[in-house]
Automatic annotation (TrEMBL):
<dbReference type="InterPro" id="IPR041669">
    <property type="entry name" value="TetR_C_15"/>
</dbReference>
<keyword id="KW-0804">Transcription</keyword>
<dbReference type="InterPro" id="IPR009057">
    <property type="entry name" value="Homeodomain-like_sf"/>
</dbReference>
<dbReference type="InterPro" id="IPR050109">
    <property type="entry name" value="HTH-type_TetR-like_transc_reg"/>
</dbReference>
<protein>
    <submittedName>
        <fullName>AcrR family transcriptional regulator</fullName>
    </submittedName>
</protein>
<keyword id="KW-0805">Transcription regulation</keyword>
<feature type="DNA-binding region" description="H-T-H motif">
    <location>
        <begin position="37"/>
        <end position="56"/>
    </location>
</feature>
<keyword id="KW-0238">DNA-binding</keyword>
<keyword id="KW-0678">Repressor</keyword>
<dbReference type="GO" id="GO:0003700">
    <property type="term" value="F:DNA-binding transcription factor activity"/>
</dbReference>
<dbReference type="GO" id="GO:0000976">
    <property type="term" value="F:transcription cis-regulatory region binding"/>
</dbReference>
<dbReference type="InterPro" id="IPR001647">
    <property type="entry name" value="HTH_TetR"/>
</dbReference>
<feature type="domain" description="HTH tetR-type">
    <location>
        <begin position="14"/>
        <end position="74"/>
    </location>
</feature>
<dbReference type="InterPro" id="IPR023772">
    <property type="entry name" value="DNA-bd_HTH_TetR-type_CS"/>
</dbReference>
<dbReference type="Pfam" id="PF17918">
    <property type="entry name" value="TetR_C_15"/>
</dbReference>
<dbReference type="Pfam" id="PF00440">
    <property type="entry name" value="TetR_N"/>
</dbReference>
Amino acid sequence: MLKPRKTPVQARSVATVDAIMEATIQVLGTDGIKDLTTTKVADRAGVSVGSLYQYFPNKESLLAGVLERYLDGVTDTLERTCAALHGKPIAVMGRTLAIAYVDCKLARPEPSRALYAVATELGSATIVRKMCRRGDIAIRAMLETAADATFDDLDTVTTVLQGVMSGPLQRVLGFGSKLKVKPLREQMALAAVAYLEAAASR
């Protein structure tokens, strides 16, 4: 069972779930997925295990909830960035979007690495597909408004651009590659802009 037992409505319940989620990220960062337990999370959150189980019936549902919240936050950032870039030149679109994506993913690198392990452990394809679809919609809508270019196949360009951005970060977060953030931001921005310039039909 990967779904939460119940959804918080009252402010106090929302605060409790927020504390549990944050504690889960902290324990993931220090102990890793294998050694994470609901008892450790409850202790870190300052709640009883019984309170935790009111919202998450087991470790798997807790991890799925944290993963979905994390991916939702990344996707929210992508959507807001794309919306702000409507009508801009493609060089501005590519650079700004790539840098925003890197900054969001690497704001807390250790928990992000742990959440990559969570995604693998849970086989969470459904959650990932949902977030990718939201990203596709936002990027496609942005590219349609480019001030200085058009694209013959927006669906393909959208998919490849997502891959240009997510591929290097998968190596950093999922496979433990040691790269400095500043050069990574610049190189990914260059790659995104170069791809859009090459794919544009003008």
